[in-house]
Amino acid sequence: MTRRDLNATTPPLRGTPPEEGNNTPGLRRTPPGEGNTRHTKNYRSLPFNPALKERAKALRKAGNLSEVLLWNQLKKGQFKGLDFDRQKIIGNYIVDFYCAEKQAVLEVDGSSHDDKAEYDAQRDAFLMGLGLCVIHILDVDVKQNLAGVMDFLTRQLFPSGGGVPEGRGGSPSYGEVDGDAGRGG
């Protein structure tokens, strides 16, 4: 099943939840003790649309090459001891990778994002509204310069001054920050 096939089953996008309480119909908070146990409140406090569970599972199984290559660097705490989730449901969106400890979302942008600039902008605004840092990485960079991508992620998630990632409140892209090819916009 391709991403295009999966997109056909996507529930209609509901707008960004209201400022107070994030009480969008169809979304619920993950109750303590349900699902994976996490050692951070950041993980459980995110809005969750249970209607997307099967789609997220299918995306994890299908996986494109760049996501699999990056996942092999991130899984099981291999990257700086951080715990990442793959195809994580946040609100009405499924993000490529999520790290609760750093409140960071990683998005691998390939050709499937070429005609989705408005959708990506809405998703990024929603995620940043939740206080998450959204980091974009080009598909081609993962395939051709994985070491450079990992260095970029280190700088973004562990800024020299300590504290929150450089991208907090913004949406850095690997190519834009490092002066490479850049993310199409």
UniProtKB/TrEMBL annotation:
DUF559 domain segment(s): 52-154
Biased composition (Gly residues): 163-172
Pfam families linked to this entry: DUF559 (PF04480)
Keyword terms of this UniProt record: Endonuclease, Hydrolase, Nuclease
GO molecular function annotations of the record: endonuclease activity
Chain segments annotated as transmembrane: none
Residue ranges of the region described as Disordered: 1-45, 163-185
Alphabetized InterPro entries for the sequence: DUF559 (IPR007569), Endonuclease_DUF559_bact (IPR047216), Restrct_endonuc-II-like (IPR011335)
Protein known as: Very-short-patch-repair endonuclease
